[in-house]
Amino acid sequence: MDLTLPESGWTLRLVGLGAITSLGASIPVGYNIGVINAPTEFIKHWSNETIYRRYNVLLSDDSLRAIIASIISIALIGGVIGSLQGAYLADKYGRKKSFLCCALLLTGGALCFLCCRAASSVELLLLGRLLVGLASGLTTGVIPMYLAEVSPIKLRGAMGVLCPLGLTTGVVVAQVASLEQALGTEEHWHYALGCFAVLNLFCYAFYFWIPESPKYLYSVKGDQAGSLRAIRKLFGRHTIGDDYIKLQMECANGQNGPSAQEDGQPQANRSLWSVVRDPTLTLPLVLVCALQGGQQLSGINAVFFYSVSIFESVGFSSQAAKFANLGVGCLNLFASLFGPLLMARCNRRTLCLLSCSSCAIILFVLTLSIHFIHLIDWFSYVCIGTILLYIIFYQFGLGPIPFFIGSELFDLGPRPTAMALGSLSSWGCNFIVGMAFPTLQNIWGAFVFLPFSITCVLLTVLIKFYLPETRGKEVTDVVPKVAHGFRSRVKE
C-alpha cells in the first residue's frame, strides 16, 4: 500500500526529525542563551574565591565585572566562529553529521559546566561557554537549512520555524531551571548551567534513524542512489513518483550560478569569496543578513533585560518581577507556537511587513512611556502592555522567518555559505547589543530603544521593496526574482 506523498502532508519520519533536531540541539542552544543571567552573582562570588585560592590574587570589582563579561560574551564570540564554520561542515560532512557535531559540542560544554566547581577552574567554565557558543552558531546556520531541505514545499516553512521555536522553548526552560526554587542557588548553579546535556541524548539515540538531506546527497555529493534511499526513508519505501522527480528538477535546474554543473553532476562547493562576489547573489545575501542581524538589533534581548525593572516600577517586589519576567518568556513561547501554522497559511512577506512595522511603532511608544513613566502613573501599565504586544508581533514574523528564509532564496550551491553568513550576522549583532546596551542605557536612558525602532523601520522598507514572496514556490522560481541586485524591485 502506498504511503502518504510528501506533497500531501506529514510523515512520522519527518515529524520525528523535527522533534529530534529541536530536542537535541535547538532547545539546548536556547537554554544556554537564557540560563546565564540569573546565577551571575553566584558565579561572580565563586570566581573571586577560586582565583584567590588558586593564584592568591584578590580581584577588584572592575576585574570581577570583566570576568563575568568574558563568561557571557565568549559564547557570543563562539557563535560568530561557529557560524563561519557552518558552511564548510555542512558541505564537507553533510547536514546530518553537522547536527551531530552540534550535539557533541553542547555535551562537551555541559561537562565543563558540571565539572568546573569540582575542578575549581574558572578556565573550564570559560571553555564550556566557548563550546556552547560554537554549537549555537553552527546550530542556527545548519539546522534550519537541514529541515528545509528534507521538507516538501508546503511544509518548508512549518519545518523551518522549528529551530527558532526550539530556541524560544529553551530560553523559557532555562528561566525556570535558574529560579532559586529550582537550581538557581549558590550550591547548584553549575547544575543549572549543565543539565541541558540530557536533551543531547535524543541526538545520539536516534542518529541512525534520521536521514541525510536528499538534496545534499543528490546535488552536492552526486549520490543519486543515496538520495533515493533518503527520500524513501522520509516518505515511505514505496513512495517515489512526483517527489523524486520534483527533487531531480530542482537539483538539475536550480544551478544557475557560476558553480552550475550539467547533466546531474554534483555542484561545486561555493566558497565564501565566490558567494560574496557574485552579483546575482548580492540582494538575497543582503536580505538574509539584514533579517538575521535585524532580528537581534530589533531589541528582543534588551526588552527582556528591561522588563524586570518595568515590573518593579509598577510596584512588584524583586522576586515577583522575576516571576513576571518568566511570564513574559512564557508569552513569547506561547506566541511562537503559532509559528508553524502561520508559516503554512500566511505569506512570508506579509508576515514580515506586519511584524516589522508593528514592532517599530510599539518600540517608539515604549520609549516614550518609559521616558515619562515618573510623570504619569498609568504609563507603567502602558510599558507592560507595549512589551507584551512587542513580543506577540515579534513572533509573527521577525522572530521565526529570518532563520529559514535563506533556504528559500538560495540554490543548493551557495545556500550553506549564505546561511552561515546570516547566522554570523545574527550572532555578531547579538554581541553588539549585549556589549553596548548597558552602556547606552546609562547614557541615553529610555531613548536606548529608539535605535531598535529605527532598525524595524529600515527592515520594513527593505522587505516592502525587495523581499519576494517565497511561500509555496520552488527555489528555482524565486532565484531569478532577486538575481538583478537592487534593481529587482518587488512588483505588487
Which terms summarize this structure?
about 500 residues, mainly alpha, glycoprotein, disordered N terminus, globular
CA gyration radius, whole angstroms: 23 Å
Overall 3D shape: globular
Q: Helix count?
A: 23
Mean pLDDT: 86
Main sheet characteristics: none
SSE class: mainly alpha
**Which regions have little confidence, pLDDT < 50, spanning 5+ residues?**
1-8, 252-265
Short description:
The protein is mainly alpha-helical. It has helices at about 10-35, 40-55, 60-90, 95-115, 120-150, 155-160, 160-175, 190-195, 195-205, 215-220, 225-235, 240-255, 270-275, 280-295, 300-315, 320-335, 340-345, 350-370, 380-400, 400-410, 415-445, 450-465, 475-480. It has 23 helices and no strands.
Q: What would your notes on this structure say?
A:
With 492 residues, this protein is mainly α. 72% of the residues lie in helices and 0% in strands. It is built from 23 helices and no strands. It has helices spanning 12-34, 40-55, 61-92, 95-116, 122-149, 156-160, 162-177, 189-194, 197-206, 214-220, 224-235, 241-253, 272-277, 282-297, 300-313, 318-336, 339-345, 348-371, 379-398, 401-409, 415-444, 450-466, 475-478. Helix 15 packs antiparallel against helix 16. The radius of gyration is 23 Å and the shape is globular. The two termini are 45 Å apart.
What is the topological layout?
Blueprint: H1 12-34, H2 40-55, H3 61-92, H4 95-116, H5 122-149, H6 156-160, H7 162-177, H8 189-194, H9 197-206, H10 214-220, H11 224-235, H12 241-253, H13 272-277, H14 282-297, H15 300-313, H16 318-336, H17 339-345, H18 348-371, H19 379-398, H20 401-409, H21 415-444, H22 450-466, H23 475-478
Helix pairs in contact: 1-4, 1-5, 1-7, 1-9, 2-3, 3-4, 3-5, 3-21, 4-5, 4-9, 5-20, 5-21, 7-16, 10-11, 10-12, 14-20, 14-21, 14-22, 15-16, 15-19, 16-19, 18-19, 18-22, 20-21
Family: Belongs to the major facilitator superfamily. Sugar transporter (TC 2.A.1.1) family.
GO molecular function: hexose transmembrane transporter activity
Transmembrane segments: 66-87, 99-120, 126-147, 159-177, 189-210, 351-373, 379-405, 417-437, 443-467
